[in-house]
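Chapter summary example.
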Amino acid sequence: MKKLKKKRLLLLSCTIAIILFGVWFSTSNMYKFAKGYFLYKTHAPSSQVNETVQKPPSDKPTIDKTPSNNTTKKELYPVRPKTGEEIGELYIPKLKTKLPIFHGTNEDELEKGVGHFAGSVLPGENDNSVLSGHRDTVFRKLGQVGEGDLLIVRTSAGEFTYKVNKVRIVDEDDRTVIVPKPRATLTVSTCYPFDYIGSAPERYILVAYLTSKTVS
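The structure predicted for these 216 residues follows.
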């Protein structure tokens, strides 16, 4: 008799435990589902959210809120230059020197003047525009240019004035020279040291920020 009561008590305890576990499991999953649904609705892409918004009547004007920066490239340079094409000139007031700029940094371009790294934006555009030149030709005196000096670039898009914010000496393999920038930047690079005989192991870098522009 006692064994029968113990079995019934054990069975009843197991049944209650299973019921409580089921209630807890259901409640926990419902909470996770509700939380996930809320986050999805809160951070859903605008394209999905807008589907439930009633469109304004066609007879009412709508306001274009697209940032003008998105069309900067098209406004300044409707036609992109080809490799080897002369795109403008670099004027360095400190040295009283004007240097032609060619699109590309192959030896053909660097033999004629300053080369514009084709993987970077064009002068005047937002982001990092990178120029390079030989230390024994166009940039022989670039070591005299430092913080606070101006670099002026003139192209078909207008005149863009940059002010040198930083001077860097980096290894020849340093790729941070060409990384994107959060603002309109002109990065000018040449081999270093200037009096080194042979292939120089470092690079002299001028990092300049756009301070003013006159668009054509």
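To summarize the output: The beta strands are 86-92, 97-103, 114-116, 128-132, 150-155, 158-171, 185-192, 202-215.
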